[in-house]
């Protein structure tokens, strides 16, 4: 039986145990230590920062699987549930997952506002800069972006509690800029065009690269936006779904 090492924080029992249940349901023997991983074994980590990144490299060198978890791309508490994103190898859209048809996203009945063509300000989403090298935002990215394109910075909620909800804060926005963020995805749902700086961001297919700022109009493409959310849906799961092992089985198939 393949083995799985779950490195999610033990203090958060409700989350760790749910993922352990999912790993067992997917056919793994969950172990407390795995110093010599073998092909078919798996590592489950939160994001891929600090020491997790080095452990992930060791598992990859051994031919084992690396499963990367993070809060749901549309928020942990989205739609009143408890959501997590789960991918192979990496996070923030750079990882891999099994993409199915349109039904998962479509059955949620999520409303997407028409794209705006008005507004009088650019809003830059502040980033925490935490995560895997090459995926985490560069130091002072938001400040450097504001210096380049103008506008104002909305602080990352992990650094400063927002003064107003995102939808209210974007009422005057004509466009937004992000490295990679859930706020950028919610802006797209609100119909605010987005520019992205991380090429593999999950929302990249429905937004314009920030490198093209000043050379092109922001992207307003309903078909690309819908396709992006349909793809995203297959990497976002509730805790109850994860307990069944289904999302993990999809990743290892």
Note down, in words, how this protein is organized:
- This protein is an alpha/beta fold and 253 residues long.
- The mean pLDDT is 94.
- A 6-stranded mixed beta sheet has the order 2-1-3-4-5-11.
- The protein starts with a strand and ends with a helix.
- The chain has helices spanning 13-25, 50-61, 103-107, 141-149, 166-169, 182-189, 222-232, 239-243, 246-252; strands spanning 3-6, 29-31, 42-46, 65-71, 83-88, 121-125, 152-154, 173-178, 194-196, 208-209, 236-238.
Keywords:
9 helices; 253 residues; alpha/beta; 6-stranded mixed beta sheet
Strand order of the largest sheet: 2-1-3-4-5-11
Task: Please work out how many helical segments DSSP would assign.
Answer: 9
Order of helices and strands: EHEEHEEHEHEHEHEEHEHH
Strand content: 15-25%
Computed Rg: 19 Å
The secondary-structure class comes to: alpha/beta
Task: Say how many strands there are.
Answer: 11
The profile of the biggest β sheet is: 6 strands, mixed
Instruction: Give the termini distance in whole angstroms.
Output: 15 Å
Which parts are unreliable, with pLDDT below 50 for 5 consecutive residues or more?
none
Average pLDDT level = 94
Percent of residues in helices comes to 25-40%
Q: What coarse outline follows from CA principal-axis ratios? A: globular
């Amino acid at each position: 039986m393949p083995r799985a090492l779950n490195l999610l924080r033990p203090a958060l029992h409700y989350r760790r145990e749910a993922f352990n249940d999912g790993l067992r349901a997917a056919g793994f023997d969950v172990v407390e230590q795995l110093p010599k991983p073998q092909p078919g074994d798996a590592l489950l980590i939160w994001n891929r920062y600090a020491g997790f990144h080095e452990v992930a490299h060791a598992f990859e060198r051994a031919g084992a699987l690396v499963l990367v978890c993070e809060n749901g791309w549309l928020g942990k508490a989205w739609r009143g549930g408890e959501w997590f994103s789960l991918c192979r190898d990496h996070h923030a859209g750079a990882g891999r997952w099994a993409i199915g048809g349109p039904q998962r996203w479509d059955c949620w009945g999520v409303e997407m506002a028409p794209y705006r063509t008005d507004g009088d300000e650019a809003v830059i989403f502040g980033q925490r800069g935490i995560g895997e090298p090459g995926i985490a935002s560069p130091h002072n990215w938001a400040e450097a972006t504001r210096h380049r394109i103008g506008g104002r910075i909305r602080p990352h909620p992990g650094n400063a509690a927002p003064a107003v909800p995102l939808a209210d804060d974007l009422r005057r926005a004509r466009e937004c800029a992000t490295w990679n963020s859930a706020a950028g995805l919610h802006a797209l749902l609100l119909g605010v065009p987005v520019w992205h700086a991380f090429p593999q961001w999950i929302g990249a297919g429905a937004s314009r690269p920030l490198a093209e700022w000043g050379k092109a109009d922001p992207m307003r493409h309903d078909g690309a936006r819908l396709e992006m959310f349909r793809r995203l849906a297959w990497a976002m799961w509730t805790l109850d779904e994860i307990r069944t092992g289904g999302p993990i089985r999809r990743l290892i198939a």
